[in-house]
Amino acid sequence: MYGCEWDDQTGAINGIYQDGYDGEDLVTMDYKELRYIASRPQGVPSAQKWNNEKGNLEVWKNYLGTICIECLQKTDPSDPFPIGIIVGVAAVILLVVIGVAGYMVYKKKNGEDKFA
């Protein structure tokens, strides 16, 4: 799950990223500290690996702190199909596809056999 919070009164923003499996949280991202934290022991390998991928952290920081916030600001609460949210979801899908493709190329190039 991912998303952002924006307080239109104070201008405060926060990014939210949680990754899980089978209904259990495994890894969350601390937006303020810009690092991943394992919620369960099974999430430790992923959190460690992702913390070493600074480019990935910067992509999420940019998306959650800029693109997602801009989408929220453009959203009309009375609109049942807000374009801001639709554009935001499309942007994340593109980021995920690019990230997976990049990881697969890296994996194949370095001969790794396991996902972390």
Describe this structure in a few short sentences:
By secondary structure, the chain is of the alpha+beta class. It has helices spanning 44-51, 54-74, 83-110; strands at residues 2-6, 13-21, 24-30, 35-38.
List keywords for this structure.
single chain; 116 residues; 4-stranded antiparallel sheet; alpha+beta; 3 helices; elongated; 4 strands
Q: Can you put this structure into words, describing what you see?
A:
By secondary structure, this protein is α+β, with helices and mostly antiparallel strands. The chain has a single domain, classed as Murine Class I Major Histocompatibility Complex, H2-DB, Chain A, domain 1, CATH 3.30.500.10. Helix content is 49%, strand content 22%. The chain has three helices and four strands; from the N terminus they run ββββααα. A four-stranded antiparallel sheet has the order 1-2-3-4, with helices on one face. Strand 2 and strand 3 (24-30) form a beta hairpin. Helix 2 (54-74) runs antiparallel to helix 3. The radius of gyration is 16 Å and the shape is elongated. The two termini are 19 Å apart. The model has no long low-confidence stretch (mean pLDDT 76).
Number of strands: 4
* Known CATH architecture: 2-Layer Sandwich
Count every helix, treating DSSP H or I runs of 4 or more residues as helices.
Answer: 3
Shape: elongated
How much helix, percentage-wise, in residues?
40-55%
Query: In terms of per-residue confidence, which ranges show pLDDT below 50 for 5 or more consecutive residues?
Result: none
The structure class reads alpha+beta
Our estimate of the beta-strand percent is 15-25%
Assign the CATH topology: Murine Class I Major Histocompatibility Complex, H2-DB, Chain A, domain 1
- In CATH terms, the superfamily is MHC class I-like antigen recognition-like
Q: What is the alpha-carbon Rg in Å? A: 16 Å
Quaternary structure: single chain
Spatial strand sequence of the major β-sheet: 1-2-3-4
State mean pLDDT (0 to 100 scale).
76
Major sheet size, sense and barrel closure: 4 strands, antiparallel
CATH class wording: Alpha Beta
User: Can you tell me the number of structural domains?
Assistant: 1
For the terminal residues, how far apart are their CA atoms? 19 Å
Protein name: Class I histocompatibility antigen, F10 alpha chain
Keywords: Glycoprotein, Membrane, Transmembrane, Transmembrane helix
Organism: Labeo rohita (Indian major carp)
Transmembrane segments: 83-106
